Amino acid sequence: MIVTIARREVRDLMRDGRFRLLSVVIVAVAAIALVVGWKQYTDVARQHAEAQAATRHQWVQQPAKNPHSAAHYGVYAFKPKSQLAVLDTGIDPYVGVATWLESHRQNEAAYRPAQDRTALQRFGELTGASVLQVLVPLFIVLMTFAAFSGEREQGLSRQLLSLGVARETLAVGKVLGILAALGLVLLPVLIMAAAALALATGGVLASTPGRAAWLVVVHLAYALILIAVCLAVSARASSSRASLVVLLALWFVNSLVAPRVVGDLAAALHPTPPAARFARDLQRDLADTSAVQARLDRRKRELFARYGVQTVEALPIAFSGISLQEGEEHGNEVFDRHYGRLHEQFGRQDRVQQWAGLAAPMLAVRALSMALAGTDGRHHRDFMAAAEQYRREMQRVLNGDLAAHARPGQVYLATPSLWASIAPFTYAAPSTSWALTGQARSLLVLAVWLAGAAVLLLIAVRTMPVE
Q1: 57, 178, 183, 437: least surrounded by Cβ within 10 Å?
Q2: Rg, C-alpha atoms of the chain
Q3: What is the SS3 assignment for the chain?
């Protein structure tokens, strides 16, 4: 009986002119979004590869010079473009694509793509994820608002129930039928998404099969939640018109209002310092000469005891290199303290937005989508941490070479072989499990919504009027 009801639902939807028109619109918009995403990915990935190769070439081609001069010369670290950014660009356009790695400074990522866009472009970027999270829910609303109320107005509900069809069976059949019809619409979109990934990366889901599979699961769960909620409203609404009004209001709040309001709420509850104040406080602690001098005095005592000497000049190593490295270590402690507090605030903001998904499932789905695509704040911070670790190691090598080879009263110039000995910067995205662990709350929220929507639908159909 469930299969029969589902088939009937699919047949009725396929005959509906609105369904066919909206299906064409959804597929067309998704195709445009995927083409745009593929073009952006290929362009940015190529530009990043070329720029990373150029900065590496400039680094290794430096002439002989003092290692500390090379440390100030520095290199760029470019953030690799996530393959699944073809589908969901997340926050990537707003956080910068490269960071400058130099002596004494931990720099923020620069060159934000959003800076080159118009205000209208920044307002709403068209991506595959936005189609699935904003347009498809609207499509579901328009296709389901009369699923029960329309039948009741036509007198069909009484006839079906008089034939002995259980209300629960009717609800399950409708859910499966609507889901199957939606699947027919989204199948071309799925095929185009796979093609876009294949063209962009040289192999379908070559390095992100787990993430891609989870993306499908998350959006499938989201579709089931929406279908169940829409059917529940249709079952209890006094008329199809009332059902449509309620569902459009819910869609508007869930898809458009909640993301902005919750983002502002998270920032208000856990504010981050203004950029100017952050930079001022950071520079103040970096300039704390007493802390640096204390480190240097302690290091001198250690070296004097190790080598059995009484003066810096008598050391068999150049204290200038040691001094520079101690300054770096002091700076690293300051950076860790200030950026650690900043990242803690970002983490608290993320948790607020994750738990807010209990009020609007779109928030949980969006967070999971960005995390799986590797385009959320946590992935960006992981890249920045890897780049900073590379910078610190590079400084240790350069300062260590200076300490080992420089001599008092002599000009020391390191050869280009030293620059080449420092391996190029590479970054590998964390595993799928790492991405999901950071979104455990969102997964829980999505599971709660799925169970709650199912219960809501069962209660609604059991108590729905038939006249």
Answers
A1: 57
A2: 29
A3: CHHHHHHHHHHHHHHCHHHHHHHHHHHHHHHHHHHHHHHHHHHHHHHHHHHHHHHHHHHHCCCCECHHHHHHHCEEEECCCCHHHHCCCCCHHHHCCEEEEECCEECCCECCHHHHCCHHHHHCCCCHHHHHHHHHHHHHHHHHCCCCHHHHHHCHHHHHHHCCCCHHHHHHHHHHHHHHHHHHHHHHHHHHHHHHHHHHHCCCCCCCHHHHHHHHHHHHHHHHHHHHHHHHHHHHCCCHHHHHHHHHHHHHHHHHHHHHHHHHHHHHHCCCCCHHHHHHHHHHHHCCHHHHHHHHHHHHHHHHHHHCCCCCCCCCCCHHHHHHHHHHHHHHHHHHHHHHHHHHHHHHHHHHHHHHHHCCHHHHHHHHHHHHHCCCHHHHHHHHHHHHHHHHHHHHHHHHHHHHHCCCCCCCCECHHHHHHCCCCCCCCCCHHHHHHCCHHHHHHHHHHHHHHHHHHHHHHHHCCCC
Residue 115 pLDDT: 53
Q: State mean pLDDT over 64-78.
A: 92
Matching residue, tokens 């609404």: 237
Rounded to the nearest 10 degrees, the angle between the axes of helix 17-60 and helix 167-201 is 30
Arithmetic mean of pLDDT, 183-203? 81
Does 206 have pLDDT greater than 50? no
If pLDDT is split at 50, 70 and 90, which confidence band does 203 have? very low
Instruction: Return mean pLDDT, the chain.
Output: 89
Binned at pLDDT 50, 70 and 90, residue 269 comes out as very high
Instruction: Answer with the residue of higher pLDDT: 408 or 348.
Output: 348
The pLDDT value recorded for residue 429 is 84
Number of domains into which the chain is organized: 1
Domain that holds residue 19: 2-463
